[in-house]
Sequence to fold (525 residues):
Amino acid sequence: MTTHTTHAADSFRRQYDAMKAQAQTWQRTWKELAKYIAPTRGFFDADRANDGRKIDHRTLIDSDPLLAVEVLSAGMVSGLTSPSRSWFELGLPDENQMKQTAARNWLAEVRRRMESVFARSNLYNTLHGFYQEIAVFGTAAFLLEEDFERVLSCRSFTAGEYVLGCDEKGRVNAFGREFWMTPAQMREKFGQENLPLAVQRAAEAQREEWFQVLHVIVPNPSADADKIDVRHMAYTSAYFTPQGHLLKQGGYRQFPVIAARWEVKNSADIYGRGPGWKCLGDVKMLQKMQKTKLIALDKNTNPPMMVSANVQGEVNLLPGGLTRYNGTTDAAVKPAYQVPVDLQALEASIAQVKQTIKSQFFADVFLMLSTQNYTQMTATEVAERHQEKMLVLGPVLERLKNELLDPLIERSFDLMYRRGVIPLPPPQMQGQDVKVQYISMIAQAQKAGGLAALQQGIRYAASLAQGNPQVLDKVNFDAALEEGLTLLGVPPALLRSEQETQQLRQARLQQQAHLSDGKTNETSL
Fold:
């Protein structure tokens, strides 16, 4: 290993150590969250690679918090990034260009191909775990890379396995992780000649050992957009061992890690806080209350006993058991004490805590149609209730849009375009930015408030028109239709262009004029 290589590995190690030091204060809470809410997630210093972790069921007696997390993650997948329906639409900033047939057709084809690539990749499986991570720990991340077979490939991470860094604007722009690999895996990824001597020997002997590897992705101070070689890309990627042996160095044109925070308290925070942070105390209380209830039930059904000194032999506490004793007054065997347990009040308290936990994880939002009684409501009232509850997620969804959805679409588009999966745009679109609009169920629920206002405005104009029809001249019904369909998430490709619309209207007017002329001639005869 050359001196230059050693210095490079030392530099990367210092950057990683700095990020890890900032994460240490967060790990204390992450470990508690993993213990009480997500026992199958989190990877910390005491954990070993490929080691099946045993769940502590003495601590996790009630599984309702785990179910609430599952409901939230499943609801976010189906409501925000559903694999079974379109959840984004591509457009152009210039509305006039969007009305051109060539532009609409190209954008529709790009979206279709992106959806196809997403379905073939492991993106949706990754997103399911991503939503679990961000709900429990407040921060989630995954690596989105090019795959020669599936075009895109995702590698998910769990809390404690990775560290992050931010720029001066609070945006995540640095990433580091430590993980474990076997000698065979290291040889396949880095090449035999790039491995440390100990790993080479273990690989030659085919020993199944685990070696620690560190990986960092950081901004490249030597970045030069005019140069296309690896050492001048926007981000540097480096794999190295804890001993300072550089295994591989590469680069990325754009930040490949999709990292999002549920909620950030201040601009200095690198990591976020999620629902798990808020209800950790409730979860602990729930487990303690369930344990108390079980102890109370156990003491009532099998109470501690006092045995008279006159008892002969052992006490038989089985149903129908017989215990012999010498005596005439005192009972031979009786409960040491009796504490009346109000199980109904205890159950009510437990139910209240469970409801609080479900509310913190928005499980009631995603399960409301199945848990609430809407038999006496109209479909419109049900939709309005749905929209009101979805608005509670508004601030969180806006952050997810900026930190998850936008980077996901942009990086996927860039990787697919460079692979030739996306066709070349029409000449009139060269150099134009593509605008992304989200049309998922949750996004539509948030926009539905605007649709209600639009409908109310049209009804108001119609009521005024009963007194003065000329007021309708101020209303652009074509624009109102387009705005309403946009709020409903209808793809723009379904709308006719302005030119086609005018041609249809002109043909209709000519047909009406022709029919009118025919009736006039018939009357004159």
Summary: The mean pLDDT is 84. The longest strand covers residues 172-181. Residues 75 and 96 are 36 Å apart (CA to CA).
